[in-house]
Design a protein that fits this description.
Elements lengths: L4 H22 L13 E7 L2 E6 L7 H12 L4 E7 L13 H5 L3 E6 L4 E6 L15
Parallel strand pairs: 2-3
Antiparallel strand pairs: 1-2, 3-4, 4-5
Length: 136
Amino acid sequence: MPHRAGRGIGTVVLCALLAIVSLAWFGRKADTLPSAHPAWQLAGQAGRLQFVLLDRSAEIDPAAYRAAIAGICRTERLCYLRFWADPHRLPSSIPMLDADAAAMSAVYDRNLAAGIDDLRWACRLALSDSRRCLPD
């Protein structure tokens, strides 16, 4: 059987190109990843749903939520965040436990195609109109 000298090089080039495309498509450079803020950190994810842990002292500070939204969602057209201040109530799976859902501090949903850009706080925090807050 004749030896194809170019076959090995072609495979290497193809693999290199696939690696580059994969990094460009799926990876983000370190400077484009959501960075933690002193008041919040990205603590987990289930599909598109992202879990944010707030410092307890920031739970009643609307600026902390907005900083997390800006840092995590950036210019994404779809972004779904759930906020907690109690690290023991962060869900470990979806669907989450009722106690985990009740402990949420806020919910942020963004779907620009549907015209949704909505931040709602837990009613217990008294940060918004009681008709628009999350029930306890």
